[in-house]
């Protein structure tokens, strides 16, 4: 498909949404991960810490094995994401510990790092949303959600 910056409304209306959502997904993911990398962490590392923190996604702060974490993140892990390797980095940094049952646990230092990592999100989101009116953004998400429902998909 040949794309250009300037398509008419009629041309845009004829474009396949799946193509454009795929392009958007790749661009947004690459941008977000590059910004996180500039701050010394990866998106999967942040997810590991978030899923293990009782102050974030974990309801109870209980440790989890890598396979349990992979199942918990299955809807957004990318094929190249290696939670075993990422957890080893966090273990080496002292942000996670591993118990005798191979469960990973977040440390106090890991929870502090999680807060610092999350602190970068507003600037990343601001850059992504730059020049986009909030009402337009909301409309776009409503349209995408409707397309998902129209095609029998589920909303996370």
The radius of gyration is 19 Å
Shape: elongated
- Which sequence of SSEs, written as H and E, runs from N to C? HHHHHEEHHH
- How much of the sequence is in beta strands? under 5%
* Residue windows where pLDDT falls under 50 for at least 5 positions: none
Major sheet: order of its strands?
Answer: 1-2
Question: What about the largest sheet?
Answer: 2 strands, antiparallel
Report the mean per-residue pLDDT as an integer: 94
Amino-to-carboxy terminus distance: 29 Å
SS elements, strand count: 2
Give a quick set of tags describing it.
single chain, 156 residues, mainly alpha
Give the arrangement of secondary structure elements.
Elements: H1 9-13, H2 17-38, H3 43-52, H4 66-72, H5 83-93, E1 96-98, E2 104-106, H6 108-118, H7 121-129, H8 134-150
Antiparallel strand pairs: 1-2
């Amino acid at each position: 498909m040949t794309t250009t910056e300037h398509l008419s409304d009629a041309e845009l209306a004829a474009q396949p949404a799946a193509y454009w959502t795929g392009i958007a997904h790749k661009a947004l993911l690459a941008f977000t991960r590059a910004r996180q990398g500039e701050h010394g962490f990866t998106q999967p590392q942040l997810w590991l810490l978030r899923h293990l923190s009782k102050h974030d996604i974990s309801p109870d702060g209980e440790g989890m094995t890598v396979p349990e974490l992979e199942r918990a993140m299955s809807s957004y892990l990318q094929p190249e994401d290696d939670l075993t390797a990422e957890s080893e980095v966090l273990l080496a940094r002292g942000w996670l510990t591993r118990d005798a049952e191979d469960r990973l646990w977040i440390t106090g230092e890991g929870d502090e790092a999680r807060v610092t990592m999350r602190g970068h999100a507003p600037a990343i989101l601001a850059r992504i949303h730059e020049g986009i009116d909030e009402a337009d953004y909301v409309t776009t998400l409503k349209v995408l959600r409707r397309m998902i429902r129209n095609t029998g998909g589920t909303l996370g």
